[in-house]
User: Fold these one by one.
Assistant:
Number 1:
Amino acid sequence: MSSPRKVSEPTVRRLSTYYRTLEDLAASGQETVSSGRLADAGGLTSAQVRKDLSVFGSFGVRGRGYPVLHLRDALKGILGVDQDRPAVVVGAGRLGTALASYPNFSARGFHIVALFDVDPARVGEHVGDAEILPADTISDWVRRHGVCLAILATPAEAAQEAANRLVAGGIGGILNFTATTPEVPESVNVRSVNLSIELEGLCYAIRESGLWESDREGGAS
Amino acid sequence: MSSPRKVSEPTVRRLSTYYRTLEDLAASGQETVSSGRLADAGGLTSAQVRKDLSVFGSFGVRGRGYPVLHLRDALKGILGVDQDRPAVVVGAGRLGTALASYPNFSARGFHIVALFDVDPARVGEHVGDAEILPADTISDWVRRHGVCLAILATPAEAAQEAANRLVAGGIGGILNFTATTPEVPESVNVRSVNLSIELEGLCYAIRESGLWESDREGGAS
DNA sequence: AACTGTGAACGTGTTCACAGCC
DNA sequence: GGCTGTGAACACGTTCACAGTT
């Protein structure tokens, strides 16, 4: 099939947004959609959309547009979300449990099948359908159940240890929410979301453009 | 001061990581650090580090490196995290409350001073030091307390309405965790973290590089 | 006429390489 | 010698513009 050499990360990101838009269009009964329309939905240009899609093949019909259902299914396959994907969460703190029950994950075919925590007191609790299991069983459990995806939400100090266990269990990818970047073999995909960095970046942008509404606190005007 | 015309977003992101590394170095008593060392800590190149820093001025000493404390303080100021920043959370669901009590935020000078929710049953509850308030008081409250930062963690359907209220209250920036991208005036900074897209991107990467450990479920080997 | 697919032009961020200073 | 600061070279992603298709 269409397995292009190298696709840029921004492109894959946008593919996800196209996929969402196409789902909506499909639900509303639209049969075709133009690159311009897809672009508007995501705040992009039509050329960008066409370029992104052209990387994977010719899905459109010149003069007419893209067939919604076909393109949606194609993207589903390309993104690898064409079947339900089990995932585990490591770290059953507030963030971990919130992510484990995040409705948009299950809506996208991701199902949290287990959580892990070092705290014995938490073991046995349930979060949705998933049970909290002891952290020292991660490797066995992940391997036995053939889980490829993990969400890492431990404190920073525990992140590397947890990552090691996931790797030992043969994990395919880790969505990392810890403040560190764990070291893993090249073959394991890690994508990090650092919440503090996002907030700091926003902070910079605010200060940059315009001023703080109040740079000294308490000042109502 | 050093207010360069335009700094790329990737650069600002990296600045945050340098800042973290510098804090660690400061704690461990290091007095100077080379660009190479800073680079290693974040998986970058030394040239990258020097370029990033040079945008804001000359912090280093040729032949010696960068003075840890001075550079740390400079970055603190550049990132705008040199003073405590109050922030509010809109949407007191699991994700919202988890973010409200996220320890790394407070460690970085971000303090959640209030949450807001449409559900009257939640109003009055406390999350850490912050109280959950009614969503229809957002504008007033934000304006009265001069809050510039908001974390948006409502369901997608409620996101635009919540954003409108924040904007009406004079918010400076929104860290958006909803599945939509709310429309706001140009002057308001929005940074979106779409968790599903991150997971889908990871999914793509796994499938791309190597294969799934098990592409059909249940298969132990 | 409407719209896709794509090479070519452009812009932006990264890496190189070296002059300059300690 | 070690290391910074920076122009110049490079790589990569985006936008343009148009030929090609229905």
Number 2:
Amino acid sequence: MTDTNTFELPGHAQRVLDIVDQIPSGRVSTYGLIAECLHARTGSGSARLVGQVMSRYGGASPWWRVVRADGTLPRQLRPDALAHYDDEATALVWRNPTKVDLDRAIWDPLTDA
DNA sequence: GTTATGACTATGG
DNA sequence: GCCATAGCCATAA
């Protein structure tokens, strides 16, 4: 096929970005949850892989809506992500406003898509 | 082919 | 709560 205006990312990368793009504003998902959805589709996938894809190709996607399993983020991204959470009114932990309140903001691509 | 690395997670002390 | 370890899988060298 001759797609002239389409950059072909690695297959799994395209799927990861597709899922991330579906996360609604004000909600978040986790690397593991996305990995589970990815594994359900392709038969392969891991949280580590999602992180790998995000670091490489996440620039054009709402990367701040993807957090760790405990609601925290990598140190380098924390400040930028918090700014977005302020815009989207994402629920944060009261005692620890550097961390997302997963009980309120979690979004599961498998069950709540 | 092997090894090292990474925006991860679960488990055990 | 924190730290160390094992499992995970694509990429780079």
Number 3:
Amino acid sequence: MPVHGADSPLYVQLKRLIKLRIASGQLKAHDPLPGERQLMQAYGLSRTTVRQALGELVSEGVLYRRHGKGTFVAPRRLEQNLATLTGFVEELRERGMRPLVQVLSATVCPAPVEAASQLQIPPGEEVAFIERLISIDGEPLFLDRTYLVAPVGLAVLSTDLTKESIYAVIERLGYPIREGTQTLAAVRLAGAEARLLRVRRGSPALFIRRVTYVNAVSPPIEYAEALYRADRYQYQTRLLRHQNASYSSVPGRGMNS
Amino acid sequence: MPVHGADSPLYVQLKRLIKLRIASGQLKAHDPLPGERQLMQAYGLSRTTVRQALGELVSEGVLYRRHGKGTFVAPRRLEQNLATLTGFVEELRERGMRPLVQVLSATVCPAPVEAASQLQIPPGEEVAFIERLISIDGEPLFLDRTYLVAPVGLAVLSTDLTKESIYAVIERLGYPIREGTQTLAAVRLAGAEARLLRVRRGSPALFIRRVTYVNAVSPPIEYAEALYRADRYQYQTRLLRHQNASYSSVPGRGMNS
DNA sequence: AAGTGGTCTAGACCACTCT
DNA sequence: GAGTGGTCTAGACCACTTA
């Protein structure tokens, strides 16, 4: 019986191992995994632990289960992000692209009203402001404006943002990014933005705004806006339907409420 | 000790109960829930079961946990959909709106190329086609075109789509919708669409395309496109960051791999 | 009937937070 | 130190699938 709690949790290790097998091609789409009882034996884990690993991989879209049949590797279409919070640049890199990042500004400035309200700070309070133009294959893809609250912001400003993504820096500084809210809208580009993106003024663009939190309670640490050229970008996600276990008022055996 | 497996699972019942307490106002944002051990006792459940219920509510954004402190009701901002697969009309109704649905067409026709390719059927195969214009407060909001594969499609066509949402009908027919993929893009409206939406030709619109599956394996059952007036709609989601338990090659105590 | 995933129990130790 | 969530074990029965 092994000692508890050294290193990372066992279920995380199992997840990693399975992901590796898939990444390396040992397991391909729709291949069955060993049964849960077999995995227990093979790695000396309890079924609960095995199921926690598999369960998370299912909810990440890496695997799927069929009652009575088995657990299988999901086809690529599902490996897509289930609405993961990923930095704008980070996302491109994960898809194997080599974005060219030009930093147009990186300063400390008083927060503009919109940013202040989203960050829940008084307008005019100092924030770090970073403006970047991201290009792929020599052609502009999107324009990004990021506002960071002071403590994190100052540290981020002192790094080389053409090489490291903002999220990577933030996390390296010890702020574990956890969640965010995102808004997408279609807009028409104003003159200045159109010029930077090298399209005609009035061209359509996908506007994405993100507010990022370290946890569910404390105020946000980042507010970012991005303008993507509509002709070069579309946003993709996977969606799950909440099995709404809905309004059957049948109490059944019930709990001793 | 209660009997197993009557009615819905115990953890689902617990979830329902907690959701009810929140909906009814007994529990408000940031209120602490009873501890897990206390919930065990109160309802005669094991800790595992309690944790499964709480865990799912956390991942749905209804609750949040703080190690060493407790479990709390998430503020409204988190109750937002975590990328839930919801019908276009359904979504509006859930937000308490009363959309006016005009059915522009509802017929059987050969699948156009785009729809056929998304639905993984040969182009020209018969599908149900439904075109609707949805308005709120007497003003058009979006235009929706839905293509359904034959078996489901025929049944859906025979219902009153101004009253019931397409997803509701599909599920009533015994096809439990599970997941989908979604693409968002910014576009410029062509003449015909602009006229229907009562905006100027060339106005920007948010284009949302959805492919819907009953499970991870079988081909999709629905392909839908919607064009939202950019001036009246934006798309919101909550995002979670995958705690990527990343590349620490520290094997720790490891598993007996 | 055998194998697989789905639900559940009872009990344990660890790590974090607060006082 | 007491309380809370986080991880883990060993073992059980149920429901579904396949043969």
